[in-house]
Automatic annotation (TrEMBL):
Domain of life from the UniProt record: Eukaryota
Keywords noted in UniProt: Hydrolase, Nucleus
Region feature Disordered, mapped onto this chain: 1-23
Molecular function (Gene Ontology), one example: RNA polymerase II CTD heptapeptide repeat phosphatase activity
The enzyme's E.C. designation: 3.1.3.16
Organism: Cocos nucifera
Subcellular localization: Nucleus
Functional note: This promotes the activity of RNA polymerase II.
Identification of the protein by name: RNA polymerase II C-terminal domain phosphatase-like
UniProt feature, compositional bias: Polar residues: 1-16
Length: 260
């Protein structure tokens, strides 16, 4: 059976390790200010790790988060799995604001509308966000296969609303990521992605990201990805003057030769 992080943390009060009231304090962690073990309302209990991405207003102390990491490690070793952390933009997909769509890309807006009901589509118009998103070729196959070997997280510097919207496209049934979607607000250090907010053992983490800079403390875990640029705004942003894949009506991995 798949266990969610939320269940592991025992906020429902079912976790064995959290039952013994006599051992509080130290309080292992809090949900809406109430201790997960003894239920007391505690105003200030020193530094805590905020894990809003798992459950809003969830905070864990160092001891409890370390315990969670050990439990997760045991579980993953039993399942013969490692942890895979996936960046979104330029790693799994490319997005553009609708306002930045060039004339030569306008056909994509019509295309996105016409394939709206196709479950295998890779182009999405996110009306509420005023964005157009193109998944990298073979993303669905990749996720399906990676899921057999890894416990997977999304980890992006983008805002939470965007991260959740994209998670829905990548994983509509919530079988891959569930609540494991980490975004900018969860980071404990500005402009840096840290593994401190991941309740998994650092030595079994593999990271796929196109940006090395944000992983200063975890370079050994990082596999640097070649950037996926599909839209013209993305190419411009990175200083490429050539036509984008979208403008050429092609995609990554397709031959440049005419007629292919
Ligand atoms: Mg990126
Ligand atoms: Zn307590």
């Amino acid at each position: 059976m798949m266990e969610t992080n939320q269940e592991n943390i025992g906020i429902t009060g079912t976790s064995k390790n959290l039952e013994d009231k006599d051992s509080c304090p130290p309080h292992p962690g809090f949900y809406k200010g109430l201790c997960l073990r003894c239920g007391q309302l505690v105003e200030d209990d020193g530094p805590m790790l905020s894990l809003d991405y798992i459950t809003k207003d969830l905070k864990l102390g160092t001891r409890e988060s370390d315990r969670q990491r050990k439990e997760d490690l045991k579980k993953l070793l039993r399942e013969k799995k490692l942890i895979l952390i996936l960046d979104l933009d330029h790693t799994l997909l490319n997005s553009t604001r609708l306002a930045d769509v060039s004339m030569e890309e306008e056909y994509l807006l019509r295309q996105a509308d016409s394939i709206k009901d196709d479950p295998k589509r890779s182009l999405f118009k996110l009306d509420a966000m005023h964005m157009l998103t193109k998944l990298r070729p073979f993303v669905h196959t990749f996720l399906k296969e990676a899921n057999m070997m890894y416990e997977m997280y999304i980890y992006t510097m983008a805002e939470r609303s965007y991260a959740l919207e994209i998670a829905k496209l990548l994983d509509p049934e919530k079988v891959y990521f569930n609540c494991k979607v980490i975004s900018q607000a969860d980071c404990t250090q500005r402009h840096q992605k840290g593994l401190d907010v991941v309740l998994g053992a650092e030595n079994i983490v593999v990271i796929l990201d196109d940006t090395e800079f944000v992983w200063q403390k975890h370079k050994e875990n990082l596999i640097l990805m070649e950037r996926y640029h599909y839209f013209s705004s993305s190419c411009r942003q990175f200083g490429f003057s050539a036509k984008s894949l979208s403008e050429l009506m092609k995609d990554e991995g397709e031959s440049n030769e005419p007629g292919h």
